[in-house]
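Researcher: I'd like a structural prediction for the single chain below. Treat it as a standalone chain; there are no partners to consider.
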Amino acid sequence: MIDATALLHPDVSPKAVEQFRSSGVAIQVRDNLENTTNCSAALIFGGDGTVHRHLPALYQQKIPMLAVPAGSGNDFAKALGIHNVKIALRAWKQFCAEGKNVREIDLGVVRAGGKEILFCCVAGVGMDAEANARANRMPTWLKSRGGYVLAALQSLVAFKPVEMSVLAGEKKIQRQAFFIAVGNAHRYGGGMKVTPQARPDDGLLDICVVGRMNKLKLLCWVPTIFFGGHLGLKQVEYFRAPEVRIDAGRELELYADGEYACKTPLEIGVLPRALRVIVPG
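Model: Treating it as a single chain, here is the predicted structure.
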């Protein structure tokens, strides 16, 4: 017998859970996964930030989770092939019937100041972190309708490139840069494929360093991030590694899955096969 927990973003109505109960499964709406016993699955109704907040419990308890896209970006759900609620419902019914459509994927882990912060999509410092901060202050309706792109453009105007250093094994990069993105999955910000070659189950992180360039040139290239075209820029360095250390000439914030995580200096690693996800068959 499947006993499931539904975790909802505050803007999501509990009525959204009803169609998932049609599979004859007991689903209890809770605020978190603390003090849950015999929980067979967790359905998370929200976006990347909602998933992000529950990652520690999902990782510790090894509970299969279904991302139901109900947020502003939903990049994690879409990276798993769940582009809408209809697809999520179909995956859930298959899980209830057979339980075979569960995939084990990696998690990124940020280490700074004695803390560890898990993330599932992308972590970034520099201009894109400032864009995240701006986007998070926007009303939900705007954020879900291209708000991140608007925030990125505003940050581009205001941000001054910073001396950043990246150390990954024997590879070292030190240069003036706009931002560094570290991806466990290939997309963030409502569809921007900043680390387009990232796969969440290869045991590696994809690192994208966008160096200093003319702002007008970068502005023209911003739209190409939606299909990974920015990798064609000579000022962009892209590589893979199991762990990376990032520092900067001044203290920079890091955002992971669209949420504030910590400040530089920091290290980012990968936890292989750390999260169990329910996916379309």
